[in-house]
Amino acid sequence: MNLLEMKEALQAQVLTDELDESVDITLAYATDLMSDALAFASDNCVLITGLVNSQTVRTAEMKDFPCVIYTRGKMPEGEIIALANTFGLCVMRTELSTFDTCGILYGKGIIGPNNHG
Fold it and tell me: Which of 1, 2, 45, 99 has the smallest count of CB within 10 Å of its CB?
């Protein structure tokens, strides 16, 4: 699944300049604890979170995540979007709950980092 397909499946809004359709997404990690994302998520995951602060984007950049998806209709402030643009990250927001977001992506073949080989 690429980022455009993910955007459409989640009825999400892209907030940054970056939406690289060539990025193939197979893993996602959902958490509001960035320490967990740093410790347990695989590189190249999509980060799904309801936490809206700059640490989410900094965590994504450190872990080489191509995209952060904010759930529950959360809207990051302009400096968070600007930071994501600086790092070349895609940031999306969806009105869906974190649970529904994960369920939809799982139904499309996206798995968690601890569920693969």
Answer: 99
